[in-house]
UniProtKB/TrEMBL annotation:
ATP-grasp domain sequence ranges: 110-298
Superkingdom field: Eukaryota
Catalytic activity annotation: 5-amino-1-(5-phospho-D-ribosyl)imidazole-4-carboxylate + H(+) = 5-amino-1-(5-phospho-beta-D-ribosyl)imidazole + CO2
Designated name of the protein: Phosphoribosylaminoimidazole carboxylase
Keyword Nucleus included in the entry's annotation: no
Keyword Lyase: yes
Keywords (A to Z) from UniProt: ATP-binding, Decarboxylase, Lyase, Nucleotide-binding, Purine biosynthesis
GO BP term (any one): 'de novo' IMP biosynthetic process
Protein's pathway: Purine metabolism; IMP biosynthesis via de novo pathway; 5-amino-1-(5-phospho-D-ribosyl)imidazole-4-carboxylate from 5-amino-1-(5-phospho-D-ribosyl)imidazole (carboxylase route): step 1/1
GO molecular function: ATP binding; metal ion binding; phosphoribosylaminoimidazole carboxylase activity
Organism encoding this protein: Gigaspora margarita
Amino acid sequence: MDPRTIGVLGGGQLGRMLVEAASRLNIKVVILDTPPNAPAKQIQATQSHIHGDFKDPYKIRELAKTANVLTIEIEHVNAEILKTLMNENTIVIHPSPSTIKLIQNKFSQKTHLSKHKIPVVDFIDVPTKDDLSIAIEKFGYPLMLKSKTLAYDGRGNYLLRSEDEISNALESLGNFSIPLYAERWTSFAKELAVMVVRRANGEVKSYPVVETVQKENICHLVFVPAQINGVISEKAKTIAEEAIQTLEGAGVFGVEMFLMNDGHIYVNEIAPRPHNSGHYTIEACETSQYENHIRCILDLPLGSTALKVPAAAMINILGKSNDLQETLRPCAESLSIPGATIHLYGKQDCRKGRKMGHITVVSDSISQLFSRIKPILEIVNENEH
Ligand code: ATP
Ligand code: MG
Ligand code: MG
């Protein structure tokens, strides 16, 4: 299909699903990540992958030697060495290292978006404890204190509710060892997300608007179509596409948004890669986010992003404890649910809150969808406060 080899920095579940899509197209993928049995390495097991850190410049150079195109499945990579490699002009890298670097830092990302008139919630730099007092004065309680870098699954966020919690908050975020900033707390009506695919020539296409539900800062459920009116849906799509047009490079991008009761929409953050809120596209769309990412970075024609079913949902299977069997009970239940597809990530250690897999359910209508997912959600939600 295509003789080029793709090198991927990161070997987690997003890499795994990317390799699944590449495998169908006979496209070779080399993964760089530390564990020899990383989820993504298990899929093309006959391929020799690279065991090492995706922040290690030597390992990244080794990856670049084996591949024609480099991409990422996690943004917390060494963007500097990617910039150097790009300047050496020996390899194609998507998305562009400057985009990866910008997005790595949520504060620079928000500054960039607001400079380009993309709506974001009010935010302020918090380099010291005194600046935190200024932020509190400005935004009041509750206040969202966030790590600028290395954040994922809500690790790096602290919802500060009162003065009593300040020292706890600072301690749990590393006492400024990782730089911090603050955001105004947003009492959103819904969280939305749009996956946008962008070719190097600037052509963009977006997937349908989804609703995402997070519990304790971590994505729990995604469903599509979002239960919003057509005007809001168009607006979310336009904002997402405009946000992506401010960035350089090709690939798929996840745009997370807050929808307020008055119809206002704010961009929360952007992921420069396939995204949890786009897993459902594997079963529910004409071309999945993973295949479209591959098409984008190889500069092949984009596939249709349209839904091929009326409704779909994705439920994350997060570790309940270190007991894998207990964690996988929703999967056992979904075996007897029509339209359900189980994805397990092949992770060796099950830990509380770790993403171990997901279940996608497709359906003929949104009401049928909710009745199909109900028994799965009941098990997922068991014993939760
Ligand atoms: P991800 O795994 O998506 O990268 P993250 O660690 O980068 O997550 P955020 O996306 O910043 O974290 O926040 C996680 C969740 O916390 C959001 O989806 C939302 O539910 C809530 N949240 C974040 N910022 C705010 C805010 N300013 N006001 C209200 N809720 C917020
Ligand atoms: Mg994030
Ligand atoms: Mg997020």
